[in-house]
Amino acid sequence: MGALFSRQPVTVSPQTHHFQSTTQAGTLVYVALSNKTHRVAPLTESCRIENTLFFGLKVRFDDIAIEAQIGTGNFGVVYKALYQGKHVAVKRLLTQSFSKKSVQDFQREISILSILAHPSVVQFLGAVTEPPTFCILTELCAGSLVDLLQLAQSKRLNITWGLTLDIALDCAKACNYLHTLTPAVLHRDIKKPYLDQDPINLAYMVAHEELRPELRDHIPEVLMRLMRACWEEDPTKRPSFGTIMFLIEEARNVVPLALAIDLSRPYAESLAAHGRHVVKTTAKPYGLTSGIL
Q1: 20 to 30 Å CA-CA from 48: which of 99, 221, 227, 262?
Q2: What is the pLDDT of residue 56?
Q3: Which CATH architecture fits 25-154?
Q4: Predicted TM-score of the model (pTM)
């Protein structure tokens, strides 16, 4: 990925570029497809209609046993905690962040989270709304993608193409679910790390300087084509998440799922060492190699 961050940061300022605030309490925003303002449903105890675990919107902060800090951001701090015998993640709004707008953003995030119910979306479990204490309770995830990559880097875990495609498919399913809601919901912020770049510079270079990740030869060609399609400069040429789900499923029929990803050699060599051989054919199997991309 060295080539991705080889350029010097560009100069970006509020005077020369239009910005959308990234200091809101939430990372999910409604998108008005017709450019009209959509109102989020009122915040009520009945927001969660699914038959899932839900603690309600009046959780007492004193009843939460904070165990450890696991994250931080502009909005506040995230803790691992215990509530009613369940381990949960608690996102607490920073005291110094209190303002009318930040509280409105907090309530808006709860309103959005409360209508989401999908196995690939972190489950909303409840909220603390006791001024000056505002918290969001969600399911506690076992780790992050960064944790997984660090395990692989330390040689404690071999990441296979099967695992990679499973993760990609789960992400695509989550985004497809959000995008097909009415109105649609977008996950706005992509979390760090950005390596050598801050998010504004990186976004500018991607949008205006055609900055793209380096595609190395350890990646199967079918996945390279999918990746290139997803970062087309013209948004209308990019596949929808529904299409991406289909193409990932088709890739599972082409790429050996048990094959470990090896960054040190081309994919064809890894494939041969795995006991299979690249067979050139004029036939076009259905899916990624069928002409869709």
Answers
A1: 99
A2: 76
A3: 2-Layer Sandwich (3.30)
A4: 0.72
